[in-house]
Design a protein that fits this description.
By secondary structure, this protein is α+β, with helices and mostly antiparallel strands. The protein contains six helices and seven strands; from the N terminus they run E-H-H-E-E-E-H-E-H-E-H-H-E. Strands 1-2-3-4-5-7-6 form a seven-stranded mixed sheet, sandwiched between helices. Helix 1 packs across helix 2. It is globular, with a radius of gyration of 15 Å.
């Protein structure tokens, strides 16, 4: 079941993100990929800026996603499921819940352009590639120019 993550969940969120992000190693340009994928200080900053939701099974968080309303859109951020829990519908349930929680006219998600499995998942849930991805990434995300060059944005109208 889904729940709002609390500050005490930070170690588990850190573990989930960094374990699941290992799948990106071949999809992220070598000059952008590092381990841990998200250092603790970056996660602390992200948790201060957005709400994290987690998927819990038997009292244990197995998947997380960040939810961040910004201006006139809402961003799905940091959507990760532990490898041993993938392909069991958890990511789909998290996406569906984020769509229901969204109060802005558009829901956006950014990911690496070569993460084809991630793109396919969002397309399956009604998201479409956004042609103005550079503009969107500069407006709503705080990422490097290199990451902008190697990323995509998918979006959908909600509500």
């Amino acid at each position: 079941m889904i729940r709002i993550c609390q500050p005490g969940d930070i170690q588990r969120i850190y573990f989930i993100i960094n374990e699941a992000a290992k799948a990106y190693e071949k999809a992220i340009p070598a000059d952008c990929y590092c381990q841990p994928y998200m250092p603790m200080d970056e996660l602390e900053q992200e948790m201060a800026e957005m709400t994290f939701f987690g998927w819990e099974i038997n009292g244990e968080l197995v998947g997380v996603t960040g939810f961040q309303p910004i201006k006139d859109v809402t961003l799905i951020r940091h959507a990760y499921v532990l490898p041993q829990w993938q392909r069991q519908g958890i990511a789909s349930r998290l996406i569906d819940d984020m769509k229901k929680l969204c109060k802005t006219p558009r829901l956006l998600v950014g990911t690496w352009a070569d993460a084809h499995w991630v793109i396919a998942l969002y397309v399956k849930h009604g998201f479409k590639p956004m042609p103005n991805k550079d503009e969107l990434l500069k407006k709503y995300w705080h990422i490097s120019q290199r990451q902008i060059e190697t990323s995509v944005v998918l979006g959908m109208k909600v509500g």
